[in-house]
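Q: Start with the shorter request: fold the first protein.
A: Done. Sequence, then structure:
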Amino acid sequence: MGDRKKTPAGIMIFLAVILVLMLVPFLWLLLSAFRPNVDLFNEPFGIPKNLSFDNFAEVMDSHPMALYFVKSVVLLLIILKIAITSCSLENHKAEASLRRLSLGFSSSNFCIPLFPRLL
């Protein structure tokens, strides 16, 4: 009973089922984003009759999205500077003590998450 082999067709069917299970919520989310709220609450699983960008305009008007974007970019640049500085200092230290070994491996190759260093 345990001698059954996995056939390529069986694997493909399994992967197709997984694909459908992953795509259906994404498509529902995408269709819901372009529907007016009235249509969404009346027919949550129906196909939209007319596409509307009002939901996106409402979000942009009610929240300072440009400010959020600028703050994210500033935070990204700060973290990037810290990561590059710490990796270059560690690499310099490794090169001074183990010059030959450091040529093959830099500290950034090991990619241990950098956030514990920042704490």
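Q: Next, the second protein, separately.
A: Sequence, then structure:
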Amino acid sequence: MAVKFKNSDGIIRHATIESILEGDFIKWSNNADYMKAEEDKDFSATLSAFTDWTYEITKGYLMIVDVQGIKSPSGEEFILTDPAIHCKNTDRFGGTNLGVEGMNLFFSKHKCNSMCRALKLLPHSACPGFSEHGTLRLCRHEVKVSVFKPGKFGGQQSGTLSFLFSPFGLHSDSVRVKPPRLTQAPDCPP
């Protein structure tokens, strides 16, 4: 909730506040390379996939990390608080924004899981559009073509046509994928 108040000097201030969270506070990841161990596989897989999804949905511009909070009393939902954001623009989102280096740290530990596959996220270690650290790179594809090029030599000549593409053009529909209920998370084939 956003609040507006006057301090003791009469200066108007603005702040955001949140309710006290009841329950056991859990840190699933930080803004570097920490990820919660596998003892809580369903929640860890879902929240790790969430960070991966934020990276893909923003086309590699940012990702939400430092995922922490509590499970709801029913145990079927997360109540998350105080995230950090890694962004290519390191002038945004404060001192916890580690930029592309922070994104690389996440991908150095992240292993795509059944939730990533259910969301049809690109597998970063196997995708030709990503470096071994998970950062986006453009791929140059070359196609052999035959062209007719009139000139003093005349006739038909062979050449190479090259172009660049981004793998995100292949997965533009991932926004419309609804995640499955946690209790029914499929173990999708890769």
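Q: Describe the second briefly.
A: Residues 22-127 form a domain with the Protein kinase-like fold fold (CATH 3.20.200.10). The first strand starts at residue 2 and ends at 6.
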